[in-house]
Design brief:
Elements (H helix, E strand, L loop, with lengths): L56 E3 L4 E3 H10 L17 H19 L3 H5 L3 H6 L3 H4 L9 H22 L1 H21 L1 H4 L9 H17 L5 H16 L5 H20 L5 H26 L4
Antiparallel strand pairs: 1-2
Helix pairs in contact: 2-6, 6-7, 6-9, 7-9, 7-11, 7-12, 9-11, 11-12
Length: 301
């Protein structure tokens, strides 16, 4: 029988036809990362489909994204806010931990040196010429009384992380620092009655400011504040019963903390940032002016 004619050979097919014919080298080029052209990248971004090397890959819910797509998406995401409008931060209470670390380091310095306490402690007269003492005294504690720093740090840890998460780090840090200063200012204002030769150390004024703020915040949120009220009453009584307790610092910190806490908690939603900044400025101005008036009355300024 006659055989069928042979099929023509395609000269462009790989492995057949003309000698040396096959896939063009350019067609088989390996994909490379746009950011690092010297790196081969077989993984592609799920958003833009461009190759991405391991250094440029970012894990996503499905597959991976490249650095450029992640950066572009971040610009369109709204910043999370706390219940009172502060910037929301996840994770550890960084501000509270930092304050505790500073107090602990300062306490070690007090024990290790003979001048650290004298350099930073607060006295109403010295405060007129060295105003940094209004704040630095809040990071010192009685060197011979370990329970002084322990009780203050425990109290700080009890309420600090909650306020830091609820108010936001910036508002919380402002609240703490101004409450500390408020305790020193109260000592100046009451110095004509209690004497100008008193020395003060301790974070109690700032901690009482946190107590005042958390009391207002809990009431604003409709939560039970009975435990905080009980703590305030007990500590208020101890301030008058125990010796060497600067109750005036407790009072000053409490008033400043309650005032700022009320401003942060009750500000209208659309004006929270404006009210927070305004309240901070007003409280700071009141503290400065009242201190200058008290000093002027006795000729210290």
């Amino acid at each position: 029988m006659p055989e069928p004619p042979a099929r023509p050979v395609d000269p462009t097919a790989a492995g057949g036809g003309l000698p040396g014919a096959g896939t063009h080298p350019a067609d088989a080029a390996e994909p490379v990362c746009p950011r690092h052209p010297d790196r081969v990248a077989y993984v592609r971004c799920q958003r833009c489909a461009r190759p991405a090397c391991p250094e440029c890959q970012r894990p996503a819910a499905v597959g991976v994204h490249c650095m450029d797509c992640v950066a572009a998406a971040a610009k369109t995401v709204r910043t999370g806010r706390t219940v009172f409008g502060g910037r929301l931060h996840q994770g550890r209470p960084v501000v509270t931990i930092t304050i505790i670390a500073l107090c602990a380091a300062s306490y070690v310095a007090q024990l290790a040196t003979g001048w650290w306490t004298d350099a930073w402690a607060f006295n109403p007269v010295y405060g007129a010429f060295e105003p940094w003492r209004f704040l630095t005294a809040a990071f010192l504690h009685s060197p011979g009384q370990l329970f002084h720093i322990l009780f203050n740090m425990i109290a700080l840890w009890m309420v600090g992380p909650y306020l830091e998460q609820t108010l936001g780090r910036a508002r919380y840090a402002t609240l703490y620092l101004l409450s500390a200063i408020g305790g020193s200012v109260a000592a100046v204002l009451l110095a004509p009655l209690l004497g100008w030769d008193q020395w003060m150390v301790g974070a109690s004024g700032a901690v009482f400011g946190l107590f005042g703020a958390v009391l207002v915040v809990l009431r604003r949120l409709g939560r039970d504040a009975g435990g905080i009220v009980g703590i305030l009453v007990i500590n208020g009584v101890l301030g008058f019963v125990l010796p060497n307790v600067a109750w005036q610092a407790h009072l000053g910190g409490l008033l400043v903390g309650a005032a700022l806490g009320a401003a942060y908690a009750y500000a209208p939603r659309e004006r929270r940032t404006l009210v927070a900044v305004g309240a901070t400025v007003v409280v700071s101005a009141v503290l400065v002016v009242s201190t200058l008036v008290a000093y002027a009355a006795v000729g210290l300024v």
